[in-house]
Input
Amino acid sequence: MVLVRDSTGTYRLGRALLDSCSQVNFVTDSFAQKLRLKREKHDVQISSIGHARTDITSLTTTSIRSRLSPFEVSLDLCVTSHIAYQPDINIDISTWKMPENIVLVEEKFYQSRHIDMLLGTEAFFDILSVGQVKLDTTGPMLQKTLFGWVVTGKCHPQQSRELAASFKLGATSIDDHLKRLWEIESTETSNVLLKPEHRACEEHYVKTTVINDSGRIVVRLPFKNNPSQLGHSFDIARRRFLSLERRLAQSSELRLQYCQFMEEYERLEHMSLVTEPNLSEPHYYIPHHCVLKPSSESTKLRVVFDASCRTSNQTSLNDHLLVGPTLQDDLYLLLLRFRLHRYAITADVTKMYRQVNVDLNDRKYQYILWRALPDEPLRTYQLNTVTYGTASAPYLAIRSLHYLANLCRTEYPIGAAVIESSFYVDDLLSGGEDIETLRTIKDQVTKILHRGHFPLSKWHSNHAQFIENFAIKDLNTCDNGLTSALGVSWNQHTDMLLFHFKPKIVASTVTKRTILSIASALFDPLGLVSPLIIVAKIILQELWLAGLTWDESVPQHLELAWKKCLESFQTISSLAVPRYCKQVNQSSFQLHGFCDASIRAYGCCIYVRSESACGNIGVHLLTAKSK
Output
């Protein structure tokens, strides 16, 4: 029996089961309702013994305290309808020789009662203490934990009626796939009116941002309420790090890449050691983990910082930060404009977030725990720059680009305009009608960003002379000319947009889950292959109408339809669409729109018709949408 914090801060009794094999923690839906815990949407699938699967739809966070000691721990828990009855039948302990001086956490452990929570491996090994008492050679034993003494081991010779299962996290979020597949077809008009919180964030930036002696921009974190309300975060950050350390120990290559990433972070002075952190003042420890991206040209492994991790009072750093307004045009508009330049150029800002310094007074809210080897002491570091994973990071980094553009507008008007209109986060997509325009854009944008220590790299262009005029170190040249423009493949030699279909999974059984996962793997923000994607959407609609679960085999007619759709997806690599959709030296330019609908779907498309001065006419698909 433990004490569990409810939504009001009051601690209530709950029954917890320790499971050293479960990779996640659980709480029953009824107990979460009793505590009125705040839930977050969290669609994942749990795999257990015999490949049995359970869908989880929500996640909550709370603190668990010992009834017998000051020990307290904060945990994320998956909400499930039922965990188990433990033990499954009452146990006769009349012959047990229990030590009189030991106080058990659960005095009535022998009675079969329902379990409110299951604490998995994340917490299991951290709460074990030195101390073990065997009641006999073959029976149960007592184990000391930070919660108190618990009973474990074999305690009944006969087979139980039910078998308890250990769980592991077994799927990517279903919502992520649905959002990717459906929202990519939506178009939204941006709201130019700032919300009050956006206006407050902008005012805060203007009042507090400065440029230091070295020329770097220094920002303050935009808190929307008093950061002293942050609770204790060291404990959960420590447990998350130890869990990460166990994962890294299983792969020497992964551990090496992680250590190299952190060593570079410290070498570039983007983080620094804090020898004596003052934990009596408001602060926040950010847990971290890695994300692998094998397709990346620069960084295969990236460390991600989780500033949404809740503290002992169920708030996180991100809960206290203003997000800020959206400052850049959306990806869709940038790609449309990208197709209208005769000559295009792309580049990106190297480590953009980390080129902006955070004020010394706010770095205590960006503490992390780190050590390269398990036998080293666990040390506290502070992150000195804007940190990816904090709610305000995108705004602070992008606003800093605009800050520099505004300072240099008089001296470099073209470069300032490009910075404010042609960046998507750290990616530049621009162009012009001649080589001189390209040179001017590159020169002015580079000079403006250089003043704030924002280096530009990976320059690409379809203009051969532009490539020849700049040093190889400034360009990202490749034999086949392939690069990525905001996720869309672009061959700069042929000036064609290309498509690649490489699903992450190849499942033998066709289910609703596999269809969604594969269909969402095709990234097409301009809708150039909408006729293919809409077929997959129609199949998914029929699966929903049929009421099938995520992992249930689909009916034969839908399986055949899906396999035919998949065959068409496989041929997509042969498709090439001209990036430039106008005529050179055009004399006229027209847009032609078409739309149609049926009982199952509707769609629209826009074509560009342009005519050159010498009478050549070209017609190209500009964009399309379907639902």
Summary: Confidence is low (pLDDT under 50) at residues 157-172. The longest helix spans residues 435-451.
